[in-house]
Known about the structure:
Mean pLDDT: 94
Number of strands: 2
Order of helices and strands: HHHHHHHHHHEEHHH
Structural class: mainly alpha
Helix content: 55-70%
Largest sheet: 2 strands, antiparallel
Distance between the termini: 42 Å
Low-confidence stretches: none
Strand order of the largest sheet: 1-2
Number of helices: 13
Amino acid sequence: MDSKQLEAFDSHVAGEGKVEPKDWMPDNYRQTLIRQISQHAHSEIIGMQPEGNWISRAPSLRRKMILLAKVQDEAGHGLYLYSAAETLGVSRGEMDQALLSGKAKYSSIFNYPTLTWADAVAIGWLVDGAAITNQIPLCRCSYGPYARAMVRVCKEEAFHQRQGFEGMMALAKGTSEQKAMAQGALDRWWWPSIAMFGPPDDDSPHSAQSMAWKIKRFSNDELRQKFIDMAVIQAQALGLEIPDPDLKLNEETGHWQTGPIDWDEFWAVVKGKGPCNRQRMTHRRKAHDEGAWVREAAMAFANKQQQKSEKAAA
């Protein structure tokens, strides 16, 4: 590695310059981005499953249409992100194989089941709320294609979060059974949602370098605190109770403090021992295998068009 190139790169990034695909970049920077963006894309695709589980069972036509549109958006987000990752020199096929083989990860939050309709709604409120907290700073990521992809993703995710909150409000203000359903979903999704920001800063091996390269703008703990402060107020507006007896407001800092997060559970889910890990990957592998003919047809058509173009240019 040329020390002058590295020095120029670091200076460019430090000055809020954007890095584009054809620019020189350190190999570690490229690999960090491939890991993060592909994992983000995988999460969007796998994340369709727990909500898609309720499309056929949504309680009304309006709710069904909302959920269909939301799941479709998630598929689009995955495509944006795979495309952004491809600008770094990795192919879609390579990313797919990394996921299917278990080498690549996706967000552990999607390894929990949606037991009731309220769980599907809570994903919109809590999981998408946590996602938007994490993703808005990525619009200022130092890597141009990722930052630009995140602008549209964040606009749609913000709408998803508002939809989720509206759905939770409908349940919380409904019958006693509906409010109990909403509270049950909050009880199940609260701790996984605040854990999805990742391990504490002291135990996060990639955070410091990612922040130095301005891929990330805030640490895991900073983002987690922003989300907690927002979600606690929203839960109060819903008339629901955060399932944490140790939750309290720190009068000096103005931040809400939670009890200890169960990091043993977090790491167990990350390592494949969550309630739905096997189910999620079995479904993804099945979908990949059944879609082989579509990929083959698309490639055959693309090759045919390329041959036509080359013949016309000859």
